[in-house]
Amino acid sequence: MFAAKIFHVGSGALRQLNTSSLNSIRQANVKLPLLQTFKRDAYTRAARARSRLRATELRGAETIKPSGFSADNAGRMVLGGACAAGVGALCFYGLGLSNEAGAIDKASLWPEEVRSRIKATYMYFTASLGVTAGAAYWLSRSQMVYRMMNASPWLIFGGGLAAMIGSSIACRAIEYEPGLNAKHLAWATHSGIVGCVIAPMMLMGGPLVLRAAAYTAGTVAALSMTAACAPDEKFLKWGGPLSLCLGGVMVACIGGMFVPATSVAAPVLNSVVTYGGLVIFGGFMLYDTQKIVYRAQNSYYNGEKYDPINNSIGIYMDTINIFIRILSILAGRNQRR
Questions:
Q1: Could you tell me if residue 317 is inside a domain?
Q2: Domain assignment of residue 306, yes or no
Q3: Domain for residue 163, yes or no?
Q4: CA separation (Å) from 319 to 48, 167, 215, 223, 277?
Q5: What are the backbone dihedrals phi and psi of residue 263, each rounded to the nearest 5 degrees, phi first?
Q6: Which of 31, 56, 98, 264 is 20 to 30 A distant from 133 in Cα terms?
Q7: Three-state DSSP class for residue 231
Q8: How many CB atoms lie within 10 A of CB 228?
């Protein structure tokens, strides 16, 4: 399940690398170094080919008027229904209408050690997002990002996926000890690699990225609050169904890599990956949030060691996947304008 989350990060970055990011660089008229003349010519030829393909698609769209019901509209309806259900759940549990007490109601009864473990988990979660944002910003401001975009997308995708999986395995394998050690180095390396993988998406424009980050922050905060107000283990039963749905989205994502963009199935697969993935990772945020509380309590009462870094990686990957999909939706709206 964790490898599937990493796969969706790499695949989302690959899709944006092939479309929106290249268009942003072409429109910005970015100058490459003189030493990269050959690569610049190759990029120019590829950009012209994409421009011709885009013009062909636009002419086809003008001749064939789409109907009122489309895959994109269906995805929006599903996402809207999920948002309405989420707001309803937040109001229901937040206003205390449930007969069962939520985790936030029992927080005052927790031992100090349990509260400190949960606090440490969210501190590592926040620091992971900071390292990822810093790495993505640094790479997007350097010449290396243009070399990545001139290279083979499959090479970038395969290398980034292998680096993310390898660094996450190394981070999880090392035992947690307080203080700076190899565990913290592996954790920072993993967060930095994720930032480098999504760095090309930063070229879509600062205002667009900041707006997507703000929407992501609001979504994650609302989902976390819903999970905290809900009764204990309410969403822990969702692990199996969410994993099955995630597998379906992963199959659609892989299929979208080999289906031509002009195919009828391409918009359907794209809607499943974008809108369906956003709903599923929202469910995983509820599940992983309650799992943190559950493990913090059980490890304390059973006398087991608690690893705040490993427990923060789940909600961290959920947040990254939510951000990628929100950014894709906003970029698609700008292109349609």
A1: yes
A2: yes
A3: yes
A4: 35, 18, 11, 11, 12
A5: -75, 155
A6: 31
A7: strand
A8: 19
b/e map 309-325, b = 16+ CB within 10 Å: bbbbbbbbbbbbbbbbb
User: What is the span of the domain harbouring residue 317?
Assistant: 2-48+71-336
Question: Which H or E element spans position 45?
Answer: helix 37-63
Q: Using H for helix, E for strand and C for coil, what is the string for 134-197?
A: HHHHHHHCCCHHHHHHHCCHHHHHHHHHHHHHHHHHHHHHCCCCCCCCHHHHHHHHHHHHHHHH
Bridge partners, residue 231, by sequence: 102
Angle at 316 between CA 314 and CA 320, to 5 degrees: 120
Q: Are 149 and 21 in contact (CB under 8 A)?
A: yes
Helix (H) / strand (E) containing 280: helix 277-301
User: What pLDDT digit, counting tens, does each position of 134-181 carry?
Assistant: 998 888 888 777 777 777 777 777 788 888 889 899 999 999 888 888
At position 144, the amino acid (one-letter code) is M
Q: Confirm if 287 and 242 have CB atoms less than 8 A apart.
A: yes
Cα angle value 183/189/191 (rounded, 5°): 105
Residue 57 lies in a domain: no
Residue 157: exposed, middle, or buried by beta-carbon count in 10 A (0-12, 13-18, 19+)? buried
Phi, psi (5° rounding) for residue 36?
-105, 35
Number of structural domains in the chain: 1
pLDDT in tens, 235-259: 888 888 888 888 888 888 887 777 7
Structure pTM? 0.76
Give the residue from 279, 280, 312, 278 showing the smallest Cα distance to 293. 312
